[in-house]
Structure formats: structure tokens, C-alpha cells
Amino acid sequence: MATDGSGTSSGYLSYNEPSIISILILISFFLFLAVGEWLADKMIRASLIGHIIVGLIYGVPVANILALEWQDTFLAMGYIGLILIIFEGGLAIRLDLLRQNLLLSIVAALIGVLTPIALSFALFYAGFHHAPLEAFILGTALCSTSLGTTFVVLSSASRAKSKESSRTDSDHAAAAAAAAAPPPPLVNFSQTRIGTVLVSAAVLDDVCGLVLVSVIHNLRGIAGGNGGSEATSSLGWIIGRPVLASGLMALLTPAVARFAARPLHRRFVAPRASSVSAQLVNLLLMAVVLCAFLVIAAYAGASVLFGAFLAGAFVSSLPGSEGIEETGEASVPPGFGASFEHYLGAPQKYVFQPLFFASVGFAIPFVELWTGEVIWKGVVYTLLMAFGKLIVGGVVPIWDLVSHKIRKGSSEKPSGGTSTGPSWAPATLLGAAMVARGEIGLLIIQIGLNETPFLTQKAFVIGVWAIVLNTILGPVLVGILLKQMGTRIAENPRWGVQAKRNGFDTEVDSEAQATRTSGGMRSLGRALA
């Protein structure tokens, strides 16, 4: 049977043994991804930086060791990893905290979007005398927040803090008691109040970035001179479509979950899922829900990443989502979080997640970064864009101050202290965690370069400097902050872990704080229940 030039035949792909060079290259690539993760975690508390550096070296920007088809494959697999990271983030988020702090999240997201755009206009248009559309494209690329980086940094910090708690407990407990006691729970920063505000603000940033990307896509038509009422109408629909699609998905998802999915799951799925088959049933259900949301988001014009987050939140609202980890009862079937960890935890941690951050390294134009003018302008722009996100943390002390004034005016006794003093660590966490731009920023700025005539190569490289350095700077700041202040943030009465009462979060009062033991935050939750 004849084969074509690619080695394929009319009915099958010819099986050819890979060359020993290809095998060694792939082995070394995955080996160095693991080594780079370990080194970056030990040195700067941001393991994802190691993945980006390895991708930079093995990809086109530096040595181009991997074949182009492998880089394309790893980019696609890495994007699946990004979807899984965001889905898991939606699965773990506290929906009661999300509802209660929605207004604060919207304010934080708006500041995080508008401030970088305004600062970009100030620097490039007023300072460097670039065209206004060029400043707009750069500001759009730098107004986004990397959702994948945000979730990975929070989960990595949670695991590290859990290990530190375990070592502390073993130092102070008797050997027999330590052997009999259960392992300390995971300090999940994504379930703190400040973590919920951070995640929801980052998601809203992504939605705003999608809208602005639609505007950038349409700039080519503006450049071509296709004006008139028809072009204006088209521009309005292009801008309005992602806003409308995202808004409808955000509104309809909780309604469908509450009035349709939960009753159906409780009636048909839960009674028939034994503890043996529940893991597989949960996996199939999560896969169906995730694929459905991805398809809806893609065809409706919303962000696929936004769809992944809503899919995780949708699944987390179903009965039994807490699972065996929360109840501790062997007779209770494992929940969706346990099923995700059982089937996808290891592949995501050791394959998909490293490939995602390595693919970010593939997209960095490393060689073009090293000219004098580009370096100093890039560093200035980096610092300005870092400030543009760090300032978002200011909403925390302002919110505390306003809440204190309202309580004082209504003669309510404030819980957790007044103010702004104890809230500086949560405020810094919120601002620092939003600094990283990552994949979203690189995607937007490359659209501006390749699909419009308005962005010059020099401005593109300066923007890449800011994206890359902010993606490195953000996780490093968060890692250092959580290493030093992680426990204090998690135990903060207003911004840390909150107890659930009838679906709403409550602040930790002083009596509950007295019941906290070295066992971790789960014992606190039981004391408050």
C-alpha cells in the first residue's frame, strides 16, 4: 500500500520507531521540567518559573531543541492543563463567599483593568509618544490576570503551608498522640475570603480582556477604512457579544444548578452510586459538564476559560460535592474533589501543568529582548504595570474602613477589629497575586502584532518584557508573602477562612478563636459549626 510523504497510508499510520535522539530529548525535557520546578520552588517559592525557563530553552526562543510538531503538541496539551487548573479552581471555590463578596470582586476587577490601561496611555502616548491605538493594545494585554498562574500559586502555597503545619505539630505533640492523630488538613487559601475575592476578580479580568480582544480584532477593519453604519453596527455586536454571552452564562449557571441539576442528581445519580463506583461516576459527570460548558462558551462568544471556571462551580454546587474529605466517614462516597484528585491529580501536576507553563516559555521572543532601549523601557513599563495591579489590594483596607463606619453608625459591635491595620497582609496578597499576566497577556499582544497594523515590533517587545517580568514577579511575591504570613492570613477573622452557616460565611469571633488548636483550620470549622 502506497504511502504519502508524511508516512501515512490510505488506512493507517505507519508505525516507525522513534530515533534515539528524539527519545533522549523528550526524556531530558520532562526531567528538566521536574528539576526546574524543584529548584524554583526552593529558591523563589514559585515552581512555575522553572517550567517557563525550561520551555524557553527547549523551544524556539533559545535553543529550539524540541521539534516544532512537538512544541505544537505540548502547547495543545498545556492548554488542556490550563483548562483543568481553572476547572479545579471553580470546583474548590466557596460559592457562599463568592456571592457575598461579588461587589468587592467587581470593584477590584475594574481597578485591575482600568489602571493598567490608563498607565499605558500615560507612559506610551504621553511619555514615549506612541500612537494612542498602540497604547490601547498594550494596556489591553497588560490588564488581564493569568488565571492559571493564580490558581497554581494558591494551591502550591496551600500544600507548602500544610507541610509546615505538619512539622510544627510533630515537634510539640507526643509521639503516641502524633501517630494516632489524623494528618493535618490542607490550608486552602482559595477558600479564604481574600482568596475568593482574588479568584473572582481574576475571572472578571479575563472576561474584560476577552471583550477588549474583540475590539482589537476589529481594528483591522477600522484600518481598512470600512466605516459607515454597517461597520459601526458590526463593532457594537463584536463588543457586545462576549459581554452578553458571559453575563447570560454567569446568570443561568446557578439557576440551572439549583432548580434542575441538583434535584436530578439527588434523585437519579446519588442513590445509584455506590462507594465503589462513585469515583468513576463523578469523573464521567465532571467530563460531561466541562465539555458542555466549553462548547457553550466557545460558540456563544464567551471565554473558554470562563466556561471552565463556571463548569467547576456548577459541579461544586451539586449534592455531595464536599465528599469524604470533609465528612471523614468511610460510608460516605467520595465527592467530586476527591474524584478529580484520584483520576487527574497526578497527570495534571506532573504532565499537563508543567506543559502549560513550558508552552508560555515557547511564546517568549527571548533574543529580541536584549537591546538597550528595549531593556530600560521594558523595566520601566514592568514596574508601572506591577503597580497597576498592586494597587488593587487597596480595596481591602478601604472596604474594612467603610464597613467599620457602617457598623459604628448602626451601633453594631465590629468583629475582628477595625480596620486597616490587620488587613495589610490580605491586601498585599490580593494585589501581588494579580500581578502575573502569563498566557492571556501573551495571547492578546500577539493578536495586536499579527492581526492589526497598529502595534510596532519595538512596542511589542517592550510589552513582552512587562508580561514576562510580571509573570515572574507576581508568584515570587506571593510565595514570599505566604511563607512569612500565610498562617496569619488564613486565620484573619475578616479575610481568612470563614465558617459556613446556612450557606453564608460568618466571621470568626473571639470565642471561636479560643477553640483553635494546632490541628489546623478544619478543627476550627468544626468548632464553629
TrEMBL record:
Keywords: Antiport, Ion transport, Membrane, Transmembrane, Transmembrane helix, Transport
Location within or outside the cell: Membrane
Cation/H+ exchanger transmembrane domain span: 39-163, 191-483
Membrane spanning stretches: 20-40, 47-68, 74-95, 102-124, 136-157, 243-261, 281-311, 350-367, 379-402, 459-482
Biological processes, Gene Ontology terms: proton transmembrane transport
GO-annotated cellular components: membrane
Primary location: membrane
Pfam families, A to Z: Na_H_Exchanger
Keyword Membrane applies: yes
Membrane topology value: Multi-pass membrane protein
GO molecular function, one term: antiporter activity
Keyword Membrane: yes
Location of the region described as Disordered in the Swiss-Prot/TrEMBL record: 507-529
Protein name as it appears in the record: Sodium/hydrogen exchanger family-domain-containing protein
